[in-house]
Design brief:
Layout lengths: L26 H6 L4 E5 L2 E4 L4 E4 L2 H4 L8 H13 L11 H13 L4 E7 L2 H18 L7 E5 L8 H6 L3 H4 L9 E4 L5 H4 L15 H9 L4 E6 L2 E2 L5 E2 L4 H11 L3 E5 L13 H5 L5 E4 L11 E6 H7 L19 H16 L2 H17 L7 E7 L2 E6 L8 H13 L2 E2 L1 E3 L2 E4 L7 H17 L2
Parallel strand pairs: 3-15, 5-6, 5-7, 7-10, 10-11
Antiparallel strand pairs: 1-2, 2-3, 4-12, 8-9, 11-12, 13-14, 14-17, 16-17
Helix pairs in contact: 3-13, 4-13, 14-16, 15-16
This protein binds 3-[O-phosphonopyridoxyl]--amino-benzoic acid.
């Protein structure tokens, strides 16, 4: 029998891997050859056996300012000592108001209020519920259909799963929400392969929303939710003009437009939010991940002032929106968020990403003649390198790439099916971009 008393436990090597049912993980494969992390600094993770692994994934699209940022750790620690927890319903902490103002300042003008949650999934579900409630209070309660997009990812709540469009994430969970429909994915390899940035082809796919409006009737549709760059499915940048067109059509029909910027927010595409890159003003933006550099769980929804104002009617003692979480605007997350936004501002990391984008795109495109590469997509400081499936079926080559990266090449990449996603911290140097590309070339050859 293993001794499980806490002080007998080693921080570095767990004595038993059985109890932890790992999320979105091939548990049995992991437990046979664990990928265990013990530390992180700047662009590297440090494994339990002391190896330095180059982080080409910003953890999981989170740590845009790199790891082990002392300012963030200090802010969290100071906050924990001053005020560990405060109820967010009917009470508030100054840091929450300050962080909301700072986030609203970064967002396009018109998006002025911030609702806090703890994750991207909660943010997506919150935005969908706000959309339904908004129409309800506007006397248009018939607007209850929600529209997502094939290959979209909006987290794992029932709302996010329902509007999501990654088949594997849906098929085990029954019928999900009713009244949901999906736009087509914007990806078409024949028309778009090896595009740098937004593909030229595909804006017209937004017109499909007109077809759904004709089918269901505009007065039954509450909102459309899309990622400006579909990340989880393997990096699919929006075609040129596509998001503008979606905005025109939603506006024309009184449908709310939600941008899920859980990945694209906080600099990933070279701007605070992708909405700015595309010059499109959605009605809501969801965010998470980069808001705290990943150092504390936090997510949220930024809403148009007109939406917020619509709720601010009725008797003043009455709660305007019956929604929220015990940990909404948690003090430690607020402290982490404020320290993170200071770093993004002081180190001009969004601009840095923007400047580095062309070099990053060229560097990744140099992999196009490596074996089995069928497409490379890039946008901001993100790229998807799609490999053809091997004989064992879709996903096996991708999984082997993840393992080869971590165990044999000292690099962490994300993998979606057979697509290797690169999405490094925005502090990455040009030399480190070169290092990423060299290591990825080795991985691709190793799994050929
Ligand atoms: N929306 C989007 C656009 C996301 O990318 C979520 C919502 C959900 O966030 P939470 O915090 O609930 O996980 C996400 C999350 C990957 C990967 O490998 C991406 C995500 C999560 C896990 C893996 O690309 N994105």
């Amino acid at each position: 029998m293993l001794d499980k008393s806490p002080n007998q436990r080693s921080v570095n090597v767990p004595n038993d891997l059985a109890a932890f049912w790992m999320p979105f993980t091939a548990n049995r494969a992991f437990k046979k050859a664990p990928r265990l992390l013990a530390g992180a600094k700047d662009m590297h993770y440090i494994t339990t056996d002391g190896r330095h692994v180059l982080d080409a994934a910003a953890g999981m699209w989170c740590s845009n300012a790199g790891h082990g940022r002392k300012e963030i750790a200090a802010a969290i620690s100071k906050q924990a000592e001053a005020l560990d927890y405060a109820p967010p319903f009917q009470f508030g902490i100054p840091q929450a108001f300050e962080l909301a103002s700072r986030i609203a300042e970064l967002a396009p003008k018109g998006l002025e209020q911030v609702f806090f949650c703890n994750s991207g999934s909660e943010a997506a579900d919150t935005a969908l519920k706000i959309a339904l409630a908004y129409h309800q209070i506007n006397g248009q309660g018939g607007r209850c259909r929600l529209i997502g997009r094939e290959r979209g990812y909006h987290g794992v709540g029932f709302g996010g799963t329902s509007v999501g469009g990654i088949v594997g994430n849906r098929k085990m969970f029954g019928t999900l929400l009713t009244g949901v429909d999906h736009l087509q994915s914007t990806y078409n390899r024949d028309k778009q392969a090896f595009s740098k940035g937004e593909p030229e082809w595909g804006a017209d796919l937004a017109d499909e929303l007109e077809r759904l409006v004709n089918l269901h009737g505009a007065n039954t549709i509450a909102a459309v939710i899309v990622e400006p760059m579909a990340g989880s499915t393997g990096v699919i940048p929006a075609p040129k003009g596509y998001l503008k067109r979606l905005r025109e059509i939603t506006q024309k029909h009184g449908i709310l437009l939600i941008f899920d910027e859980v990945i694209t927010g906080f600099g990933r595409l070279g701007f605070a939010f992708a909405a700015e890159r595309y010059g499109v003003l959605p009605d809501m933006i969801t965010f998470a991940k980069g808001v705290t550099n990943g150092a504390a769980p936090m997510g949220g929804v930024i809403v148009r002032d007109t939406i917020y104002e619509a709720f601010m009617a009725g008797p003043e003692h009455v709660i305007e929106l019956c929604h929220g979480y015990t940990y909404s605007a948690h003090p430690l997350a607020c402290a982490a968020g404020l320290a993170t936004l200071d770093i993004y501002r002081d180190e001009k990391l969004f601009e840095r990403a923007n400047k580095l984008e062309p070099k990053f795109a060229d560097a990744v495109m140099s992999l196009r003649n490596e074996p089995n590469v069928v497409d490379i997509r890039t946008v901001g400081l993100t790229a998807g390198i799609e490999l053809s499936p091997n004989k064992e079926g879709p996903g096996k080559r991708g999984f082997e790439a993840l393992q080869s990266g971590f165990h044999d090449n000292d690099i962490m990449v994300r993998v979606a099916g057979d697509t290797i996603a690169l999405t490094p911290p925005l502090i990455i140097s040009e030399a480190q971009v070169g290092e990423v590309i060299e290591k990825v070339a080795k991985i691709i050859r190793a799994v050929a």
